[in-house]
UniProtKB/TrEMBL annotation:
<dbReference type="InterPro" id="IPR014710">
    <property type="entry name" value="RmlC-like_jellyroll"/>
</dbReference>
<protein>
    <recommendedName>
        <fullName>Cupin type-2 domain-containing protein</fullName>
    </recommendedName>
</protein>
<dbReference type="InterPro" id="IPR011051">
    <property type="entry name" value="RmlC_Cupin_sf"/>
</dbReference>
<dbReference type="InterPro" id="IPR047142">
    <property type="entry name" value="OryJ/VirC-like"/>
</dbReference>
<dbReference type="InterPro" id="IPR013096">
    <property type="entry name" value="Cupin_2"/>
</dbReference>
<dbReference type="Pfam" id="PF07883">
    <property type="entry name" value="Cupin_2"/>
</dbReference>
<feature type="domain" description="Cupin type-2">
    <location>
        <begin position="113"/>
        <end position="169"/>
    </location>
</feature>
Amino acid sequence: MAIQPRLIVTGREADGTSVFVTDEPGKPVVVGAIPGSEFYLMWGTEDGTATVGTTPQQPKLFPFFPGAGGTRVLFLRWAPESSAPEQLADPDELAAEAEEKLPGLMGVFEPDSPGMHTTDTVDYGICLEGELHLELDNGEEVRLTPGACVVQRGTRHAWHNRSDKPALMCYILVGAERVS
């Protein structure tokens, strides 16, 4: 049975007592520009320094990639490349849909190198189901299987599901400043 993403958030009452604030299933977001894939946007923090306390907080989910000090956590179910539906819509319409549903995501992708992108984030990617290949710009690849954790440090890369089954990854993105 496939993992179903679920969000549980804790908080504090005014008197300091710990409580569960949220316990709900993740809701998939699909975009035609990445056919067959499901994004589960779970939580994020504002850029800068994260805070905790009794003040209720709402997740900061957009833009898709956090700025320096901000965070995002998401699950992404990757469809097998062999069975992903074709992109039938106009490319401009697909880009507009993706920008509406996942603001900031598509702007990092290179039009002349499908799937290749670079972000100013440190990403912790954990393979939960299936398998996924991480390709770097020099053509080297590594195959991730359940239990593999990759630390993606702002390098140019692409993800590929070359298997015949969906792959589920959990990504924790931490906004970073790029330095030489």
